[in-house]
């Protein structure tokens, strides 16, 4: 991944993510499946101009869906929980 803008796909705005953001200064992002923790840290620091304390990544399996007797499967994807250093915050996500 040569470009930092290809590492982060989008922020995840969920109830759990809002609780993590307010309580523990953690932000959730959907990331590229091939990205590692170091690439995610560099991307967040460069794009949002903040200091990252830790990055945890989770590979999420796609759900199996059924319509009648036909089965389908959602895409597998990867998310990252980014912990920022004390006093740091991402302004763009704060207003949402």
Structure description:
The structure is a single chain. Helix content is 31%, strand content 36%. The chain is α+β, with helices and mostly antiparallel strands. It has one domain (4-87): 2-Layer Sandwich (Alpha-Beta Plaits), CATH 3.30.70. The strands form 2 sheets. Strands 1-2-6-3 form a 4-stranded antiparallel beta sheet. It has a two-stranded antiparallel ribbon with strand order 4-5. A hairpin with a 2-residue loop joins strand 4 and strand 5 (70-73). The two termini are 28 Å apart. The model has no long low-confidence stretch (mean pLDDT 93).
Tally of alpha and pi helices: 4
CATH topology: Alpha-Beta Plaits
Unreliably modeled segments? none
Rg, Cα atoms, Å: 15 Å
Q: What is the CATH C-level name? A: Alpha Beta
| Annotated CATH homologous superfamily | RRM (RNA recognition motif) domain
Order of helices and strands: HEHEHEEEEH
Strand fraction: 35-45%
Largest sheet: 4 strands, antiparallel
- Strand order, largest beta sheet: 1-2-6-3
Helical proportion? Answer: 25-40%
Distance between the termini: 28 Å
